[in-house]
């Protein structure tokens, strides 16, 4: 799949993958900040942003999308970062093609998270995607009216604001979704599922720096998973990002930027 992407800066290549409901636009501020040190690539993952839609949405397909993207951009090796769903894609890619990775930053997600280990998160995503699929936005006349449509079903103003960024205005003035709600809802179990099992037969992945960033106020990367992560990435370093929830790059962009730049000095 040919992914839409944005590109900033000059230097060693760094690919940053956004999370569920996100897009390349979420990381533009960080990309511009580090554009003097990296050539930053910000792809929209499948079923998000301006990239193509597909009924298939799992980490194997998204990892293969990234491989195709790297080949198209002639990236034989590169630094890789990913937030949430994008972090799981990045882990899957690093397991499959470690020889292509110069350094890895996983932002506030565990590769072993499942709907049973984080049931609240699973139910939240399920409720959001059902609300998006069941709400007709085409007849709304303004962004304020769109906000009102989701006031009751998406309580968090921050989450609601992130999701409403996925709405576009068509040439006839009507509104429609950029994300593929139906495919995301159909595949929600795959999205929240573990990328790999800690008991699976695999060789530990080594040879490059690995940082796992956990938001101080987030439960998407439970400390109980640190030991399992170290079996997969023995050199992994865990950093607690203060004053941050799940969207670290919004809550504390300086700390995230610092960790990305640290990749160059390990």
Number of domains: 2
Count the strands? 9
Profile the largest sheet.
Answer: 7 strands, mixed
Strand order within the widest beta sheet: 1-3-2-4-5-8-9
Characterization of the model:
The protein folds into 2 domains: 5-113 and 195-265, 3-Layer(aba) Sandwich (Rossmann fold); 119-189, no CATH class. It is globular, with a radius of gyration of 18 Å. With 266 residues, it is α/β, with parallel strands linked by helices. The two termini are 33 Å apart. 40% of the residues are buried. 36% of the residues lie in helices and 17% in strands. It is built from 11 helices and 9 strands.
Write the layout of secondary structure elements.
Elements: E1 5-8, E2 13-17, H1 28-33, E3 39-43, H2 59-72, E4 78-83, H3 85-96, E5 101-107, H4 119-134, H5 143-149, H6 157-164, E6 167-169, E7 175-177, H7 181-186, H8 188-192, E8 210-215, H9 226-232, E9 237-241, H10 248-251, H11 253-262
Parallel strand pairs: 2-3, 2-4, 4-5, 5-8, 8-9
Antiparallel strand pairs: 1-3, 6-7
Helix pairs in contact: 2-3
